[in-house]
Structures are given as structure tokens and as C-alpha cells.
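writing this on my phone so excuse typos. first protein, seq and then structure
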Amino acid sequence: MLADWSVSIRRACRVLPFDTSSYHYQSRRTDPAFLKKRIKEICETHVRYGYRRVYYILRRDGWAVNLKKVYRLYRELGLQLRNKTPKRRVPDCACGVGSELEGESC
């Protein structure tokens, strides 16, 4: 638009309801591909680690990353802390009833 109409940025932004600071804005957000890769590596080696423990490992390794970002990437990667299945309780005897009286056997 600026080249077509040969107007300055300031004048074009004034005509449109648009701030010049928004026009000049440069995002500082980095690509999280390396961070995603590192989170996936940690979760593959330590299956029982949740996002909080992964966050502390990343901080210990020197990553300057926020807990909320780790949580967001953890969810995007489809990782979840696996629920432990409860251990099966084996009955006291083969009939399935506990020995309530001491002398009796099933």
C-alpha cells in the first residue's frame, strides 16, 4: 500500500485506525522445536515425569523457560502422566473369602 500510493507510514497509519508501533512490531518469540524435542526426550526416558518435573529438569539444564510454556507444549505433544493401574489384590485363599476363623480352611 505504501509503494502504490507513495505515502509515508505515519500518514497511512493515521488514515487507518492503526498505531505505528503496531506496524513496526517484531515478535521475539522463538521457535519451540528444540524445546519440544528436549521435552519429548525427557518424557521418553522418564515415563512417570509430569510437566512440573520436566520443567525443573529443563531449568537445571539451563533452559530459560516458563512453567506455563512447558505445560502448553506438554499438552500439545499429547503427553500425560500415565495413571498407575492399581495392583490386583490376591485373596487369602482360593475360594476368595478371607480366613475369618483361624482353624478353618477353604
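second protein below, same order as before
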Amino acid sequence: MFLPFQALQLKAKMHRLRAMYREFYSLLQNIGFGWNAETNTVTASEEVWKNYLKVHPKAAQFQKKGCDFACNLGLFSYQVCGCSR
């Protein structure tokens, strides 16, 4: 009886993760953005962030905290992200 509800939950979660992945990947493809493996955060000047967030407001979630599971999503090689895999 609860299985369809759980399946819908999983589908919604997958949709949110896919959207987050696309936003994060798109962010890092832009000139001016970098990745700091030690702090697990995106690096960019305030001016670059300001201009980017005008067009992509959902990317604001990555401005201070980065993407906690970027390595698990396969966005970086292990050497770049500093994973211990």
C-alpha cells in the first residue's frame, strides 16, 4: 500500500538531484568560476557571482557551501576534488 507513495518520493528526489546537478555543472562551466577542494566550495569574485545570479538565481545555494556531494555525482576526478576513494 505504501510502495507507490515511496516510489513517488524517490522520483521527486531524483528530479531535485538532477536539477541540482545541472545547475552546479552549468555554474562550473562558466569563466570566472573555480573549485576549491579543501573547502569544498565554488570560487569566484563577487562581481562574477553577482552577474551570474542575475540570470541563475537558483545557483545562490552554491555560493557559500558548494555542493556537498559533487564528487559522488562524478563532477570531478578524484585528484581534483580530493576524495579519499
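Confidence is low (pLDDT under 50) at residues 77-85. thats all i got for now
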